[in-house]
Fold:
Amino acid sequence: MVTNKILLLILVTACTISVICNAKGSGENGGLVANFYGQNCSRAEEIVQTVIKRHVSDDPSLPAKLLRLYFHDCVVRGCDASVLLSSTENFQSEQESGANRRLGGFEAIDDIKAELEKECQGIVSCADILALATRDAVSLQYGRPLWEVPTGRRDGTISSALEASRNIPTAFSSFNVIKDIFRRKGLSIDDLVALSGAHTIGVGRCSLFSHRLYNFTGKGDQDPSINPSYADFLRTKCGPNDGRTTVEMDPESSRSFDNHYYEILKDNKGLFTSDATLLTNKKASKVASKMLDSETFFDEFAKSMLKMGAIEVLTGTQGQIRKKCNSIN
Ligand code: HEM
Structure:
């Protein structure tokens, strides 16, 4: 009898805490829920998927663009679509930061937003559109969603180039710098290694790694940590002062989202210093070895994307639902 009462008390207390937590927008997924628009805009997710299919068939590089755009959104002020805001008289937006040069995918997001505003005005946030569109674009080659996207994010009203520069890791960042950035966002070394697998698709600019080929320590030398035959190959693509050319980050399968990144990484063919540096940490290197198993990679990537998508999200009455993704209401 007494035990039953204690059990009941524990149950009630746990439920109360959980309700409060969810109402405050914390909890497991930051207060996000599956199918948030089910009642108010039931075709929202279907519309995102349809528009994305059209855009990816016009531009096969879109999955990579969106995946990077989404990461750069979440790591600065959380996943609040702050990266989509254009500069105004009052602020220099995140887009002006050097770390955000060559970002893309904005037109696809604007197109989805326009379609959704026609279907149900002022309901679906740009932050959720970016989260869903990224998942759908990357998953398209498999015909099934590669990770879950709970929804209910709201849009931020502030975007700062300075904050972007402080929070987005660069091609030149060391392991500790990157690890600290991720840790500040609640992401572990396991998350860092799993999410780095995103570099299995897309391209990078020569100017961000050519020092590794031509002038690593200022003496006309090559980075000793780069695979020599890969360096030879890269030199055929990029001259020493090439500011324009881009090369595929995973040359053998740069349009296919898979775990091939870890194979090239382990072969010292990571393109940037920031990739190669994963092998300099014992734990990260061990995690990268585990990712050589495809099933492990897809499982871990899905878990880490769920975590990334919940970073500092605005929910409930926080923020707003923008009418247009590039400007606040
Ligand atoms: C771990 C720290 C990271 C660093 C230092 C980093 C750095 C970079 C750099 C320098 C580029 C090339 C940019 C250019 O050429 O202008 C790039 C591209 C890219 N990054 Fe990362 N990144 C990191 C993590 C991530 C994460 C977590 C994701 C997504 C989950 C991601 C997704 C991408 C994608 C898809 C591209 C290719 C974009 C395109 O082709 O348009 N990156 N990254």
